[in-house]
Amino acid sequence: MPSASTEASTTVDAAAVPAADSPSAPGSRAAAGAPAGRPVREGTGPAPDDTRLAPGDPGYRRVSLALFLAGVATFALLYSTQALLPLISRDLGASASAASWTVSAATGALALCVLPLSALSERFGRRTVMTASLVVAVGVGLLVPFAPSVGALIALRAVQGAALAGLPASATAFLAEEVRPKALVAAIGLFVAGNSIGGMSGRIVTGWVAQEWGWRAAVGVIGVIAVACAVAFRLLLPAPRHFTPGTLHPRALARTVRGHLADPLLRRLYAIGGLFMSVFGGVYTVIGYRLTDAPFSLPQGVIGSIFLVYLVGTVSSATAGKLVDRLGRRGALYLAAATTTAGLLVSLADSLVTVLLGLVLITAGFFAGHSVASSSVSHTAKRGRAQASALYQSAYYLGSSAGSALGAVAFHAVGWSGTVGLGLLAVAGVAVITLAGTRAARAERLTTTA
C-alpha cells in the first residue's frame, strides 16, 4: 500500500490515504477510492484554494482539541463501569456475566444507534448531533450512581450508550470534510487518542475513588468530568465550513447503506474493526476479576492504575500515520495483529510483570489497528461518509459488546485462558481478512497492468 503522504497525480482526496486493503499502484482503485477533487500535479500539494484545515492552522488546533475532549468523554462514560465490575458484583449481588452487561449494554446500544444518528448528522450537521449526544450522555451519567439494582444500572447504561452513538461516526465525518486529506490520519488518530485517554483516566479515577467511597461515587465523578469535557468541546469546536446537508429519506439512506455494504473493501474494514475491538473489550472487561483473584489479589485502586497502559494506545493511535508511511496500510494491520497476538500469549503467565507487558502489547496493537482501519473507511467511501463511518462504528462496538459478554462467560467457565483463546481466534480473523485484501489488491494490480 502507498504511504499516507503519497501524492498520486489524480485528486486531492485520493492523494492522501487509500483504503487499507487496496492496491498501491497509481491508477488503481486505491488511488481512486476517495471522492473526486481537483487535480493536482505530483509534488505540488493541495490546490491553492483548498480552504480545509491543515496542521499549523489555528482552526486545526481547535478542532483537534475539541474532538480529543469529545473522545475523552466518550470512552470515560462508555466504559465507566468496566474497572468496577467486581465491586458492582458484590454490591448488587450480580455474577460476573451479569455485571459485564453494564458494559455490553452500553456498547451494544451504541452499535445499534450509530447508523440512525449518523443519518441525522447528514441532515442537521455533525456539530449539532455531537453536541446533543454529549448533553444526553452526561445527563444520564449523573443518574447512573443512583441505580437501585443491576437491572436498572444496565438500562441506564443502554440509554447512555445510545446517546453516545451520535459522536463517533459524526466526528470522523466532520474531520473528513473539514481537514485536508494528508492530515486526516493524524487528526483521526488524535480523536482515537482521546478515546484512549478517556478510557485510561476514567478507569484510574474510578479505581481510586471506588476504593475509598464505593463504585457509585466513582461513576459520579466520571459524570462530572464528562460535563467539563462536553462544555469545553462545544466552546472549542468551530462551525463547519464544508458541510452540505443531505436527505433523511429512508430510501436514500438504505441505498447508501447498501452501497457501502456491497463494497468488499469496506466490508473487510468493518470486520477488522469489530474483531480488534472484541479482543480489547473481552480483555479489559475480565482483567479486573483476574487481578482481584489469587495469585494477584490486588486492591481496587491498584487495579485502576493498571489502566495507565492506555498511554501506550494514545501513542500508537496518534502515530498511526507514520506507521502507514513506513509499512503501508496492510503492513500496519499485520503488525497490529502480530502485536496483539504476542500480548495475549504473554498475558497467560501468572506474573504481574508479564500480565502488564501483555496488556501493553494488546493495547498498542489494538489502537494502531483501529486507527488504520477507521481512517481507511473515511477514504474508501465515495459518498455518505457518515454512514460509512457509522457502519464501521456499529461493527466496532458490536465487537466490543460481544467480546465483553463472551469474554466474561469464557472467564467464568475456563479462566483467563478462555478469554485469551477467544482473543486469539479474533486476531486470526484479522490476519485472514487482511491477507484476503492483499490477494485482492495483487489481482487487481495484475488486471490493471495486463
Provide a short characterization of the protein structure.
The chain is an all-alpha fold. It is built from 16 helices and no strands.
Report on the structure:
- The structure is a single chain.
- The protein is mainly alpha-helical and 450 residues long.
- 73% of the residues lie in helices and 0% in strands.
- The chain has helices at residues 58-78, 85-92, 96-124, 126-141, 150-164, 168-178, 184-213, 215-236, 250-262, 264-292, 300-305, 310-318, 320-346, 352-380, 385-413, 416-449.
- Helix 7 (184-213) runs antiparallel to helix 8 (215-236), helix 10 (264-292) packs antiparallel against helix 16 and helix 12 (310-318) runs parallel beside helix 14 (352-380).
- The longest helix has 34 residues, at 416-449.
- The two termini are 19 Å apart.
- Mean pLDDT is 81; it is low at 1-47.
